[in-house]
Amino acid sequence: MEVSLYIVATPIGNLSDISYRAVEVLKSVDYIACEDTRVTKILLEKYNIKTKVMDYHKFNEKEKSDKIINLIKEGNKIALVSDAGTPCISDPGSELVAKLRENNIKFTSIPGACAVITFLTHLVRDNEEFAFIGFIPRVKKQQIDILEKYKHTNCIFYESPNRLIETLENLKNNFGDIKISVARELTKVYEEVKTDSISNIIDYYKNNTLKGEIVVMIYAQKALFLEDSELVKKINILKNEGFSPKDISKIIAKLYGENKNKIYKLAIN
Ligand code: SAM
């Protein structure tokens, strides 16, 4: 069976970050399905690609997936791109993949730029493990719930520059002064990657440019205390040394990455 659809990764900033194969495929197919045709046309002009474009975005994914399946059944070859990076990764595409599978249509993926993967190559990590949650939810409670779930794993998310400080303040209030990395404008002229405590990063971005595209990693917090009884033993040692419940919660949260409120509640009992 021949390949009828190509999922093609495009650059995340630097227009040269595209593979030879991707350019060849974009030239050879009958249609390119794009998230925003105006954005993709800039890339197509740079590489002198004259292929017809059609739109395929999150608001018309369902109906356009059907249209693409019909075009394929009529013998057309299609490429799917998003505005930047790899389609289907925090971008439209999954609906179409489901339809391609349902219809037993052969497709392939042409790899290339992806912000989360590019970001990972900038970081020093103890191990390969990471969780990627796409865009972090806007609701504060949901932010905490999801990061609590991945608390013991390096956890990466996308966030808009307009919400970054508010999101980081929320995480700091709940998880303490944790270690984080923030990348801004990867592969572009003003590329910047910073690793520090969350409070230093907040201060930095309150005083420096915060524009462009952002990826964040929250480093894994150490899971030393699995048993509350162990926690209580440590709390009692500090209590006997004369520390207040407030200080105890601060100390243990900082040393062991435990939740400050939980320790405080144990300490006052
Ligand atoms: N599909 C894309 C990928 O493969 O990374 C992601 C698309 S998602 C709609 C866009 C988000 O990805 C941005 O809001 C930002 O969080 C992140 N992003 C994309 N390009 C970036 C860049 N050059 N530097 C930092 N983050 C970037």
Labels describing this entry:
269 residues, 5-stranded mixed sheet, 3 domains, 5-stranded parallel sheet, single chain, binds S-adenosylmethionine, alpha/beta, elongated, 11 helices, Methyltransferase, Cobalt-precorrin-4 Transmethylase, Domain 2
| Secondary structure category | alpha/beta
State the share of residues found in helices, binned by percent: 40-55%
Count of distinct structural domains: 3
Indicate the mean pLDDT. 94
Give me the Rg, rounded: 23 Å
Strands, total number:
10
- What spatial order of strands do you see in the largest sheet? 3-2-4-1-5
* Ligand inventory: S-adenosylmethionine
SSE string, helices as H and strands as E: EHEHEHEHEHEHEHEEHEHHH
Helix count? 11
* Low-pLDDT ranges: none
Overall description:
It is a single chain. The protein has 269 residues and is of the alpha/beta class. It has 3 domains: 5-113, Tetrapyrrole methylase, N-terminal domain (Cobalt-precorrin-4 Transmethylase, domain 1), CATH 3.40.1010; 116-218, Tetrapyrrole methylase, C-terminal domain (Methyltransferase, Cobalt-precorrin-4 Transmethylase, Domain 2); 228-268. The chain is built from 11 helices and 10 strands. The protein has a 5-stranded parallel sheet with strand order 3-2-4-1-5, sandwiched between helices. A 5-stranded mixed sheet has the order 6-7-10-8-9. Helix 3 (61-73) packs across helix 4 and helix 10 packs antiparallel against helix 11. The longest helix is centred in the middle third of the chain and has 15 residues, at 161-175. The mean pLDDT is 94. The structure holds S-adenosylmethionine.
